[in-house]
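To the team - FE2/S2 (inorganic) cluster complex, inputs and output below.
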Amino acid sequence: MAATQRITSLENVPAESTFLFRVADELGDRREAILVANGTGSTDADVSCWLNYCQHFTHIKLDKGDGAPMRDGEVICANHGAYFETDSGECTFGPCEGAYLTELEVTVSNGDVYLADEEYEFVATGPIEDDGDLTSTSNVEF
Ligand code: FES
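Output:
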């Protein structure tokens, strides 16, 4: 049973983009995850957490290191324009319409966001840096 682990302060979660961090799964494999604000920002329900991978091609990162683009309160995959709801993670438009992002459980307490997921452990903020450069994921498409 994983203890809750502080990710960042709530004020660091941008209103129009995403906050990127790294987690490790039960096997120790590193993955990226994003925090997304979806409300006024003071309760658990105002912050969502998803693995940072599109449901169209799951090797494609939504946040490529500078924050994922957002429009009308939805996260957009820059590769083929899929839209994902920030509260449910459902793809509402695009090639993977109807699919859901993988959710990680987080809690908010005293202005800080904590990872509270039994399957993932917080590693650090920022992108995974040891899997090649950040542009390598988009080169896969060409
Ligand atoms: S990889 Fe995200 S929409 Fe195609």
